[in-house]
Amino acid sequence: MHEFKYIGNELHCETVKISDIAKKVDTPFYLYSYKTLLDHYYKLKKAFSSINPLICFSMKANSNLAVLRALIKEGAGLDIVSGGELYKALRIGANPKRIVYASVGKTDKEIREAIKNKILLFNVESVPELDLINTVAQKLKRKVDVSLRINPGVEVDTHNFIATARQDNKFGLDLDTVKFLFSNLKRMSNVNLIGVHIHIGSQITESHPFIEAINIISSFVDELKKDGVRLKYFNIGGGLGIIYREETPQTAQGFAKAVLPYLKKLRLKIILEPGRFICGNAGILVTGVLYIKDTRFKRFIIVDAGMNDLIRPALYDAYHEILPIVESKFKSQNLEKADIVGPICESADFLAKERPMPRLESGDLLAVMGAGAYGFSMSSNYNSRPRCAEVMVIRGKFYVVKKAESYKDLVKGEIIPKVLR
Ligand SMILES: Cc1ncc(COP(=O)(O)O)c(C=O)c1O
Predict the structure, then answer these.
(1) Closest protein CA for atom 5 of ligand 1
(2) Judgement on whether residues 288 and 386 belong to the same structural domain of the protein
(3) How close is the Cα of 276 to the center of ligand 1, in Å?
């Protein structure tokens, strides 16, 4: 469910006409619905209310400060993966005691900053990383809490690039290593191993891989108990799928109903790290048609948003529904298949392929749906294209929550050495 709907003939974000926003903000731009964002957060919170988990929004999905602020104001914690994300989290006033830190490649500097800022937990993904955290903590004369990320080796039905719990993925630690670490606790004077973490992948539409993974963790936690090791946290990661096309993902309620009996048995504080579920359908990318190009083989609709703005179709072959801002454009005409492509010099620069589309004209506006997660946060300056603006509708008004970059921003920090002058 989301708040992008036709009212009359025009697509609206909540009660605001998108074409009115496009009169004030140049396309392309990302547009977020505050109401949808909060609605998804509360769906999850309510579904799991019987165990009152810590819900840490996964910042990598969307790290716009207004998005983050909207969520932390409602009590969300944050899942971070870099020093930059920690910086942004602190900038919006997030409580460090509600921040968990994953990533396979945390640097010495990032670890130091996170310890100094007293985050809740590190989710540790390798033995040398654990050793480094211990050493840094020692130098800072601190004892830090750590969860070990376990790779449970479960198969999930999703794109290869977003499956993270297969034996050959780089993420997490295998169970034997985790057992070894728990039985050699003494060698780490400055870390408390107090939790386990999993994240089995993204855009997962069924509950059985989660249950399979939780069962593996349960047996492990039981073994630890026998050895006298008591844990405090179990972090189930993110991964809940959303509707992009015709998926029938589990609802928050359905997911909770399926996993709660298993989670409750663990008797640990549960952490969830949803990203896509909260913001995926809370955002769209609004783009304008530049040209229609008919070749002997195909029609191309060339738009002003490229793979630098939204890389998901190129990277994951992802499907995004594309809707006209003016609904009658689609209804009144025969549709013909076309590729919707951007201006970038790459054949992978497409938003949709072979999509039935009406005859559009230069200046028509299109909405690329389901672009709120891994949209702007994965955007780049490729082809020296300034990154676009982000806009949020809040209670009937729209706000630019990130200005589009300027050409000047493109050269920020670049230096021509004297020898080249
Ligand atoms: C450790 C971790 N937690 C949470 C997430 C969020 O995943 P999703 O957006 O699928 O909920 C990710 C995504 O890559 C992740 O790596």
Answers:
(1) 238
(2) yes
(3) 8
Record the tokens describing residue 75, joined without a space: 């009590």
To test the ligand 1 pocket, which listed residue (56, 59, 60) has its Cβ within 8 A of the most ligand atoms?
A: 60
Q: Answer whether 55 contacts ligand 1 (Cβ < 6 A).
A: no
Question: Closest Cα to residue 321, out of 362, 360, 359, 357?
Answer: 357
**Element housing 101 (H / E):** strand 99-101
Domain with 164 in it:
63-274
Kindly tell me the number of DSSP H helices and DSSP E strands found in the chain.
13, 20
Give catalytic residue positions.
345
Angle at 47 between CA 41 and CA 50, to 5 degrees: 120
Q: Whose CA is nearest to atom 4 of ligand 1?
A: 238
Structural domains of the chain, count: 2
Residues 226 and 99 in one domain: yes
Ligand 1 centroid, distance to 354 Cα (angstroms)? 30
Q: Does residue 372's CB lie within 6 angstroms of at least one atom of ligand 1?
A: no
Question: Is the N-terminal amide bond of 28 cis, ω within 30° of 0?
Answer: yes
Our answer on whether the CB atom of 100 is closer than 6 Å to any ligand 1 atom is no
- Are 64 and 376 a contacting pair, CB within 8 Å? yes
Are residues 154 and 77 part of one domain? yes
pLDDT digits (tens, 9 = 90+) for 341-385: 999 999 999 999 999 999 899 999 999 999 999 999 999 999 999
The answer to whether position 45 is within a domain reads no
DSSP string, 256-317: HHHHHHHHHHHTSEEEE--SHHHHGGGEEEEEEEEEEEE-SS-EEEEES--TTT--HHHHH-
Report the pLDDT value the prediction gives residue 166, as an integer from 0 to 100.
63
CA of 274 to the centre of ligand 1 (A): 6
Q: Are both 132 and 25 inside the same structural domain?
A: no
Other Cβ atoms within 10 Å of 388 Cβ, number: 28
Tens-place pLDDT, residues 79-129: 999 999 999 999 999 999 999 999 999 999 999 999 999 999 999 999 999
> Quick one: 177 and 245 in the same domain?
yes
Instruction: Check if the beta carbon of residue 35 is closer than 8 Å to that of residue 43.
Output: no
Tell which phi-psi region holds residue 267, choosing left (phi > 0), alpha (psi between -120 and 50) or beta: left
Using CA atoms, how far apart are residues 118 and 351, in angstroms rounded to an integer? 42
Tokens of 24: 């004030």
